Structure formats: structure tokens, C-alpha cells
């Protein structure tokens, strides 16, 4: 059995910032990190395994200046190098901020290219703050839909929810850190789940079954110290505004992965499954896995990935 190759791609300014945050933390060996942008400075600010500078002829090594079409043209002009950089991937996890030129133009073109290369894609995409205006919001919405049309599972993370989650007085830097941290914990748990053999194993094909559902996806992860607190932790995870809890009930597929100590009981396993199932009345595929905690790690962990959120629900999401 070969280890799946996971490429995490940071696209545009937001994607590069998220990649840089990940760089400060360890991830399993089968993960490689690639930064992709028209903007040389943004690329050079990231420590990663590979960088692809998109068409210098079109963008002169600078940002797209909010021009998604220019950024998309730069992707097309750089296609051979992108194919080369991505061809070893069994899955691409894309991090980006929609509404900007690179974020929207590049992410959508990459979703198209990946579909052509038959590589599944999971996208974590921020949506612009309200104050950034209607134009960016519309562009972001279009990009969300386009990526889904190319078959990508897209987790939308509206930046406005950061205020709801953290409080209005939160410093901007803190809010952006929290958004990076939210991604980091999900990606750490997801990549560990795929790398480790669990007691009730959740493998790459389980993961693919969930992300191949058409529609929007949701993701969240949480860590706690106490086994008794797992139901409370699941509840807290479900209520995180960044997880878009109001959309969860539409999900058609979901996976819940638990990392717990040797004392974790069958009853606790079942209770968590029932607790989640109650939130997912439309789910047709619910996968639940368990990995026993490594000795050196005392944390209990929960990871939730849900997908197949319908077009109806998409419309609501775009209005929040
Ligand atoms: N949460 C979060 N959102 C960000 C961050 N940086 C940018 N964004 C969001 O992402 C959107 C796109 O911004 P950038 O990533 O800077 O733009 P870009 O993709 O580089 O596009 P161009 O510079 O126009 O080519 C913005 O409108 C913000 O809403 C960040 O560090 N954290
Ligand atoms: Mg930029």
C-alpha cells in the first residue's frame, strides 16, 4: 500500500500567509507545500517546498491588482510548470482568499487544471469581510461556484465570522492569526489521520469518499485534555461560527475522526456518533474513526469534515 501524496497549495496573498503559518508546525512527510502566485514578493515570503511564479510576461512578477482575469490568464500561460509541480499529488488541498485577483482567478483555474489531471481537490477559501465591498464579495461567490463546478469540495470561511467568533474588539492581527490557527488544527489532524493507522482506521479512500461529494464542505477540529469532555468538545466544535453550523444539517456525507486514550469506551464512541448524527438529518454516508493517542500526546482530538451541502444552502451561505 503506497502512502498518499498530499500537496498543500497556497494561492495568492492569503494562501501564502496560511502556508507560512503551517510552515512553523510539523506535518507528516508525505505532505509537500507549494506556493503559487503572480506576485514574486508574496512567494518569496513563504518557506515551502516549491514555488511557482505565474507568468512574468503577463503580471511582471507583481500582484494581479485585484484582476482575477489577469491572474487566470497567468495560470494558463504557466500550465506546463503547474502540471509538473502538481502531477505527483493524490490530492490537492488548496488554501486561498477569494475576492482577490490571485485568490479568485488562480484558484478557479487550478481547480479546472486539477479536474483535467483527475486530482481531487479540497479548498479552504476565506470570503471577504463585508467592509471590502460588493465587488469582492460577488467575485468570491462566483469563484466558489466555479470551483464546485470543477468538482472541488470547497470549505468557505467567511472572514466576517471571525468577528462573531472572537468579538468585535479583537485586533485585526489576532483575527487573522485565529483564522490561520483554525486551518492549522484541521490540517494537522487531517494529515495525521491519513498518515496513522487507527484502531478503527480512516484511510485516504474514506477521505476521498467525503470530499468527492458535490457541493460545499465544512470542516472543524478541536483539541481537549479530558476524555469526559469529548461530548462538550464536539458541541463546541459544532457551534464554531467558522464552521457555518447552520449549513451542517444539509450535509450528505461526513467523517468524524477521534484521537483518544486507551480507556476510551465503546459507549463514548457510540455517544459521539449519535450526537453528530442528530445534527446531520440528511447524511447518507457517516464515517467514524478512532486512533489511540500516542504516548507522548495527552490531547484528545476531534476532526469533522462534512460535504455535499446543497445549492439551496449555498444561496443562504452567500447571504450571511
Ligand atoms: N483570514 C484572512 N483573510 C485574508 C488574509 N489576507 C487576505 N485575506 C482575504 O483574502 C482576500 C484576497 O486578498 P489577497 O489574498 O491579499 O489577494 P490576492 O489573492 O493576493 O490577489 P491580488 O493581490 O489582487 O493579485 C481579501 O479580500 C481578504 O478578504 C489573511 O491573512 N487572513
Ligand atoms: Mg496579493
TrEMBL record:
Keywords (A to Z) from UniProt: GTP-binding, Nucleotide-binding
InterPro entries: FtsZ/CetZ, FtsZ_C, Tub_FtsZ_C, Tubulin/FtsZ_2-layer-sand-dom, Tubulin/FtsZ_GTPase_sf, Tubulin_FtsZ_GTPase
Sequence ranges assigned to domain Tubulin/FtsZ GTPase in this UniProt record: 5-198
UniProt keyword annotation of Nucleus present: no
Alphabetical list of SMART domains matching this protein: Tubulin, Tubulin_C
Superkingdom, natural source: Bacteria
Ranges where the Tubulin/FtsZ 2-layer sandwich domain occurs: 200-318
Annotated PANTHER family: CELL DIVISION PROTEIN FTSZ-RELATED (PTHR30314), MITOCHONDRIAL DIVISION PROTEIN FSZA (PTHR30314:SF3)
Protein name per its UniProtKB record: Cell division protein FtsZ
Species name: Rheinheimera maricola
Amino acid at each position: 500500500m503506497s502512502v498518499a501524496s498530499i500537496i498543500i497549495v497556497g494561492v495568492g496573498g492569503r494562501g501564502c500567509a496560511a502556508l507560512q503559518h503551517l510552515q512553523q508546525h510539523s506535518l507528516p512527510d508525505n505532505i509537500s507545500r507549494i506556493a503559487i502566485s503572480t506576485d514574486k514578493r508574496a512567494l518569496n515570503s513563504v518557506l515551502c517546498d516549491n514555488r511557482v511564479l505565474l507568468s512574468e510576461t503577463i503580471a511582471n512578477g507583481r500582484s494581479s491588482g485585484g484582476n482575477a482575469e489577469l491572474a487566470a490568464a497567468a495560470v494558463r500561460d504557466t500550465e506546463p510548470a503547474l502540471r509538473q509541480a502538481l502531477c505527483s499529488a493524490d490530492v490537492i488541498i488548496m488554501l486561498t482568499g477569494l475576492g482577490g485577483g490571485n485568490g479568485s482567478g488562480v484558484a478557479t483555474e487550478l481547480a479546472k487544471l486539477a479536474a483535467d489531471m483527475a486530482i481531487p481537490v479540497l479548498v479552504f477559501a476565506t470570503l471577504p469581510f463585508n467592509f471590502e465591498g460588493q465587488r469582492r464579495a460577488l467575485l468570491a461567490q462566483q469563484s466558489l461556484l466555479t470551483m464546485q463546478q470543477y468538482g472541488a469540495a470547497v470549505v468557505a470561511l467567511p472572514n466576517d465570522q471571525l468577528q462573531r467568533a472572537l468579538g468585535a474588539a479583537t485586533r485585526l492581527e489576532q483575527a487573522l492569526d485565529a483564522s490561520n490557527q483554525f486551518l492549522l488544527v484541521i490540517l494537522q489532524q487531517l494529515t495525521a489521520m491519513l498518515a496513522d493507522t487507527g484502531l478503527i482506521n480512516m484511510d485516504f479512500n474514506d477521505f476521498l469518499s467525503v470530499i468527492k461529494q458535490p457541493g460545499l464542505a465544512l470542516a472543524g477540529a478541536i483539541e481537549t485534555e479530558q476524555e469526559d469532555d469529548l461530548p462538550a468538545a464536539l458541541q463546541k466544535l459544532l457551534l464554531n461560527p467558522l464552521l457555518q453550523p447552520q449549513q451542517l444539517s444539509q450535509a450528505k456525507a461526513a467523517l468524524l475522526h477521534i484521537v483518544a486514550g486507551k480507556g476510551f469506551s465503546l459507549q463514548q464512541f457510540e455517544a459521539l456518533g449519535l450526537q453528530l448524527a442528530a445534527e446531520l438529518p440528511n447524511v447518507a454516508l457517516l464515517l467514524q474513526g478512532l486512533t489511540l493517542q500516542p504516548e507522548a500526546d495527552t490531547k484528545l482530538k476531534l476532526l469533522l469534515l462534512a460535504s455535499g451541502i446543497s445549492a439551496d444552502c449555498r444561496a443562504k451561505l452567500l447571504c450571511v
